[in-house]
Design brief:
Helix content is 5%, strand content 38%. A 6-stranded antiparallel sheet has the order 2-1-19-16-15-14, with no helix packed on it. Strands 3-6-7-8-9 form a 5-stranded antiparallel sheet, with no helix packed on it. The radius of gyration is 22 Å and the shape is globular. The protein starts with 7 loop residues before the first helix and ends with a strand. By secondary structure, the protein is mainly beta. It has 3 helices and 40 strands.
Length: 531
């Protein structure tokens, strides 16, 4: 129940004090772990050897350089708030989990099941690729502002799950119980990708739409105080090199230092939205007035446009791939390409990035699409500053051309090991080595040598997600198309336990402490307890 009217003045004064305290508190006091604080990392980059045709478009004009207020340098830490805010957790696309998981029994159990609706078209409900939920433990001052949470707005420690669905709605659930926390938001079109939240904790929700159904397709931004749409970026963009298609399967990133959101579109454009956010937690108002910058490029020797993977960023360096297999690095201070690399085939999986010393490296895998139906999926490690191949391995995969085209290879984002598995990177391959099966391989980061392999009876698009117990032991959750979710020992690939869920799994799980949330290609969202 809301506070009685006579307490409103005191209530707003308390909120004002909380806001002032948060604004004045050093970041280190708000941090969710004890990692050392560092200044944002900037790389000195050269584009002299890159012959990638490109342009920067802002306010209807083609510019030689972007306005200074739209240049980007991302902070080292994506958020100070507990949660999973975007696909794979943050700009390096190497996470997807928060906290520690006990796993003393090395088992999974179904804690709850929530249901979705179904789309008017054949896409059904639940979630498809990439379909990861966002999970957030709202700061008290933000939680109090969201009246649609009802009594939960005053519940300390409350954690909310936010799941986009193929039925076109966004669902809000209590992490512990799976019960609805507020009414769904209907976006009008099926959602294939992963929703993203403002990592500052502001009640801003970003939803990319994957399939046109009853409204124009594009990126929609919602105010979670009112549940109203406050901005729409049309996918069918006159400046796009790809006409007639405008899906946003990519999950974007918000730079809290510049109040900017960056995202790639299947129309072939890279966008920067300078949001100009105006949030008043006392008056309970939230507005954005985005300025839109477009980066457009022409892949050399390719007419296949479209960015389906979620952009990766470290400092001022953005890394992404497209449907034609062009990988590129973009300097976010100049919006000039630093390098481009022809991977040989469609690349939809996000590029997983980490630092080796002071130098970024990335891990990537191709599909067997243009080179199919039989072909090689190439797994690679590249130097992030030059695009040089540091190692590569090929794995045979089997797609199909008849009765319809079916692609194979890598759809799952690689899992970059840390802690006790810091020397390995895990890839999940679809329809490998044959049409119905899958394969997980852990490769040595230094050499690309195979450390372990785990054959899967059924192929997988879902990205492997890691969690770690209090002793530092790493585990992997991997879903497959048959609806099985597997728990593996990350050090050896040993299968520890599995659960059979209803509906095939294309989506990727998110983990918060001892709970994982995973939607299936049916009408179900599962809460899984990590025991």
């Amino acid at each position: 129940m809301d506070p009685p009217r006579r307490w409103q003045t005191r209530y707003t004064a308390i909120l004002a004090t909380l806001v002032a305290c948060i604004a004045s508190t050093p970041r280190s006091a708000l941090a969710t772990d004890s990692a050392p604080r560092t200044s944002p990392r900037a790389f000195e980059l050269s584009s002299e050897g890159t012959a990638l045709e490109h342009s920067v478009i802002f306010a209807g004009a083609v510019l030689d350089a972007p306005p200074a207020r739209l240049t980007q340098l991302f902070p080292e830490r994506y958020s100070e708030i507990p949660g999973v805010f975007t696909f794979r957790g943050g700009p390096t696309r190497t996470g997807g989990s928060w906290g520690t998981c006990p796993l003393r029994e090395r088992k999974l159990e179904v804690a709850w099941i929530a249901t979705t609706g179904r789309s008017r078209s054949h896409w059904g409900g639940g979630a498809g690729w990439t379909g990861q939920p966002a999970i957030v433990q709202w700061p008290a001052v933000i939680r109090h502002s969201m009246g649609r949470l009802g009594p939960r707005r005053f519940e300390d420690g409350f954690v909310e799950v936010i799941q986009g669905s193929l039925d076109g709605s966004v669902y809000f659930l209590d992490l512990r119980t799976g019960r609805p926390t507020r009414r769904p938001i209907s976006t009008g079109n099926p959602i294939k990708g992963s929703v993203s939240l403002d990592p500052r904790g502001y009640p801003l929700l970003f939803v990319g739409q994957g399939i046109p159904e009853s409204k124009p397709i594009g990126l929609r931004v919602y105010n979670l105080i009112t549940h109203q749409q406050i901005f729409f970026l049309p996918g069918r963009d006159a400046k796009s090199p790809r006409k007639g298609w405008g899906a946003f399967d990519s999950s974007g990133l918000l730079n809290r230092s510049t109040d900017s959101y960056i995202v790639g579109g299947e129309n072939g454009l890279f966008y920067v939205l300078r949001l100009n956010t105006d949030f008043d937690s006392i008056a309970l108002t939230l507005k954005v007035r985005p300025e839109v910058l477009r980066y457009r490029y022409a892949p050399p020797g390719s007419t296949h446009y479209g960015i389906e993977n979620s952009l990766s960023v470290v400092g001022n360096l953005a890394l992404f791939a497209d449907n034609g297999g062009t990988l590129q690095a973009l300097d976010l201070r100049t919006f000039k390409p630093v390098w481009a690399f022809a991977a040989g085939d469609d690349t939809d999986a996000s590029l997983a990035v980490e630092l080796e010393g002071d130098r970024p490296v990335l891990y990537t895998g191709t599909e067997v699409d243009k080179t199919g139906p039989r072909g090689q999926s190439w797994l690679r490690k590249l130097d992030g500053l030059t695009g040089k191949v540091l190692w590569e391995r090929a794995y045979p995969c089997q797609g199909a051309r008849e009765p319809k085209k079916i692609d194979a290879g890598v759809f799952a984002t690689p899992l970059v090991g840390t802690g006790d598995v810091a020397g390995q990177v895990v890839f999940t391959l679809s329809r490998c080595p044959n049409f119905s099966s899958g394969l997980m391989v852990a490769l040595d980061k230094a050499t690309g040598a195979e450390l372990w392999r785990r054959p899967l009876a059924h192929f997988a698009w879902s990205s492997p997600t890691s969690c770690r117990d209090e002793q530092g032991h790493s585990f992997i959750l991997q879903g497959d198309i048959s609806g099985q979710v597997h728990l593996l020992d990350a050090r050896t690939g040993e299968a520890l336990h599995s659960l059979q869920l209803k509906g095939g799994i294309e989506a990727s799980p998110a983990v918060f402490n001892d709970m994982a949330v995973l939607a299936t290609r049916g009408e179900w969202i599962y809460g899984l307890r990590l025991r």
